[in-house]
Amino acid sequence: MLLFCFVFPPGDTPPTEQPKCTDFQNANPFRGTNLKVRFLLFTPSDPRCGNLVEESGDLQNSGFNVTLGTKLIIHGFRALGTKPSWIEKLIGALLRAADANVIAVDWVYGSTGAYFSAVENVVKLGLKISSFLSKLLVLGVPESSIHIIGVSLGAHVGGMVGHFYKGQLGWITGLDPAGPEYTRASLEERLDAGDALFVEAIHTDTDNLGIRIPVGHVDYFVNGGQDQPGCPTFIHAGYSYLICDHMRAVDLYISALENLCPLMAFPCASYKAFLAGHCLDCFNPFLLSCPRIGLVEQGGVKIEPLPKEVKVYLLTTSRAPYCAHHSLVEFNLQEPRNKDTHIVVTFFSSNATSSGKITIPKQKLQGRGVLAHPTPQCQIHQVNLKLQASRQFWKKDRTTIVGKFCTAPLPVNDNKMTVCLPEPVNLQASVTVSRDLKIMCV
């Protein structure tokens, strides 16, 4: 028998075995939903390699940094038992945007099959995650440095974990928290503002898969919370029709991490009131600190104590980076009318066009609206105004009106940013009038 002996020169050490990367599990949706939870740590040094961590020793040997914050990602229901298609992109965006540990919770086995079976696993999963977090606390990780990012059903799992920690975790972000089985659930069963020091939720599919009620300190209802621009509107699109609105919350969050253009929102009583230009700043209740989607502390809200369940609204574009610059548009009639007046406003910049509507109630002189544009307001060079004709089948509407058009970027905190056309505008029904806009860049 031959024995081979390797001798390393003085000062050299044998090469250490590199940790093997662990990927998400794939489950068979027809074989039940046994809960097989795994925790995968991702670090800036190797953002594509997940290290399986189960014990404190695993964490210490896998590059976990106790001095950094920890982002915990929890996916939702997986009908086909497959790895979430967005997970790698979100992990990468988090690692680039924040100096933090990123841990993805793989519960594909427990989330597959029937949706109601996955719901039944939420409490058990919450206990598993809570037990795992206790190991982080033993290592010296502060509760306030833990940020849970839960997608759909995963948002309520995050709420369950936060409830177990008596609301002392630092931050929970719910990306379109699931609606089915949760709209009428108790606070203990679903995500709510008491589950962390700061809880936010991004709502994009409130009429289908997402929850329609506010569940955090700040609740973003993007484009009103449903029917996202760029998503299919017909069932012929198949799976994309079912999931596009719901997954837009994930796309928006990733975009907010990757781009400087802010996704800013404005508190308002309703989406209709927001579009009508009734909510132009963030004074009430945020004292002008408008909330923003992303990793800004407390969403940019700088008041204490935080108000709860504040609905905030924003408009977006149809594709990444999704961010839009909101403008107040206003028309002041010289004389009131006996019917509502509807004016379509269209902004033009060098590479984009966007439209909105102003409604002036009957017997009123002023009407307002909110219009969103992909570029800053100072890059808009032209505005088109068109008076909508009334429905008269027997004759052409020849109505004419005269008034003054003005616009200002949101938030409107003073009148200095308002720009008006120098001369009154004459509008005839169904006839488009174009005017140049000259707005200074700040």
Per CATH, what is the topology of the largest domain?
Rossmann fold
Give the C-level CATH assignment of the largest domain: Alpha Beta
Query: What's the pLDDT, averaged over the residues?
Result: 91
The CATH homologous superfamily name of the largest domain equals Alpha/Beta hydrolase fold, catalytic domain
What is the succession of H and E elements? Answer: EEHEHEHHHEHEEEHEHHEEEEEEEEEE
Tell me how many strands there are.
19
> Uncertain regions: pLDDT < 50 for 5+ in a row?
1-8
Count of individual domains: 2
Q: Helicity range of the residues?
A: 10-25%
Distinct helical segment count: 9
SS strand fraction:
25-35%
CATH architecture of the largest domain: 3-Layer(aba) Sandwich
Instruction: Give Rg in angstroms.
Output: 26 Å
Give the strand order of the largest sheet, numbering strands 1, 2, ... along the chain: 2-1-4-3-5-6-7-8-10-9
Question: Strand count, sense and closure of the main sheet?
Answer: 10 strands, mixed
| Shape designation | elongated
EC number: 3.1.1.111
Active site: 152 (nucleophile), 176 (charge relay system), 246 (charge relay system)
Subcellular location: Secreted
Binding site for Ca(2+): 190, 192, 195
